[in-house]
Each structure stands twice: as structure tokens, then as C-alpha cells.
Amino acid sequence: MIKVNFKDPAIWLATWFGCGLMRPAPGTWGTIGALPFGILFLAWGGLPLLAVAVASVCMAGYWAAGRFEDQAGEHDSGAIVIDEVAGMWIALLPTALNIPLVVAAFLLFRLLDILKPWPISWADKKLPGAIGVMMDDIIAGTFVAVLIVGARLAGFG
Question: Which residue ranges traverse the bilayer (predicted)?
Fold first, then answer.
């Protein structure tokens, strides 16, 4: 069991309210846990609200991941999934709530997060601390967003 203080709000944020504690595949659970919030932000406030939410979760995630790492004494614990939240929300930005594009964003994000092609793998292995925890998923989400924009420009969605 992970040695962290579950009374600390940073721990609940880092695990996205416990999604990161679910097994197997906590990253997938964290991404699933991120989806309804991202979709609601898009539905309620469109791209501007989701963009503000992305910026906010990136900053909060950096803080929460750092607190989690300090308490757990390990780098990039699988229980930290706030990075998946940030990446998934970035991937959702260009989907315009088009269901096939939302599904594609989810699947592509999970694929890139698992396979970690360069430069995602570089960020995962080379960046220290909380920035390393967050940045690989931010890059993966950005790649997916670019792919979704390309799909939309090509007439899909």
C-alpha cells in the first residue's frame, strides 16, 4: 500500500479522487474519470472553459503530483493520474463534442500514453519530479489534439 496522507487534499487531487487507486490500469481509470468533467466543461462553456480547466488542472496537477511524490517517496507512482486528466482534457479541446472524435481522442490518448513514442518517452524518462509526471501526458494530449484537428480538416467530424 502507498504511504501517503489521505487526509491531504493534494493526494485526492493527484489520484483524481481515487481513480488512481483502482486496479488494474490506474491510468485508464484516471482517463475515464477525466472524461465526464471534460465533456461537461465543453458542454457548459465550450472551448474557452475547457482551456481554462486545462490550465488550472496542469498547475494544480504539478502541485499535487509533487506533494504525492514527496509523501510516497517514489517518482511517478501509478496512483498519480492527475496527469492523465490534463492530457485527456487537452485531447478533448478540438473535438467539439463530436462523439466519434471524443472516442478517438480517448483511444489515441491511451495508446500514446501506453506506448510513449518520442518525445513522450523522453519527457517520461528525463524530466524530474512533478514536471516529469505531468509533461509526458501533456505532450501525449497535445499530439492527440493535433491529430483530431487534422481529422476535422480532412472532413472527419
Answer: 40-65, 86-109, 129-151
Nearest 5°: phi and psi at 97?
60, 20
What is the CA 23 to chain-centroid distance, rounded?
17
Cα 57 to Cα 24, 29, 33: the distances in Å are: 24, 17, 14
Between CA 119 and CA 134 the distance in angstroms is 13
117-130 pLDDT, tens digit per residue, is 999 999 999 999 99
- The residue among 115, 84, 104, 83 whose CA lies nearest residue 146 is 104
Residue 156: alpha-carbon gap to chain centroid: 24
- Burial category of 100 from C-beta neighbours within 10 Å (exposed 0-12, middle 13-18, buried 19 and up): exposed
The answer to whether 77 and 69 have CB atoms below 8 angstroms apart is yes
Q: Is the pLDDT score of 9 beyond 90?
A: yes
Write down the pLDDT at residue 2.
76
At position 20, the amino acid (one-letter code) is: G
pLDDT tens digits, one per residue of 137-148? 999 999 999 999
Question: Where do the DSSP E strands lie in 10-156?
Answer: none
Residue partners of 116: CB distance under 8 A and separation at least 6: 124, 136, 140
